[in-house]
Amino acid sequence: xxxxxxxxxxxxxxxxxxxxxxxxxxxxxxxxxxxxxxxxxxxxxxxxxxxxxxxxxxxxxxxxxxxxxxxxxxxxxxxxxxxxxxxxxxxxx
Length: 93
Description:
Elements: H1 4-9, H2 25-34, H3 43-76, H4 81-92
Helix pairs in contact: 2-3
Organism: Stagnimonas aquatica
Protein name: CopG family transcriptional regulator
């Protein structure tokens, strides 16, 4: 089951905002040279892809940490491993 935040990210016409970043010229040049090799038409699209990949990775790690903390708290309160594992399987289904 997809979370609401992931469902929103899959929407094509999401609102956007413009930002300004100061990036070293050599980094921009590297992005420009790598973009076509990775199938992107421009460096800005590649940069957005890098940001999205890092954000998804960090969000997943954060969510995994939260699940582990909840699991430990429930276990401390006497919830069995069997019940915890069944609940986690239910979430994944």
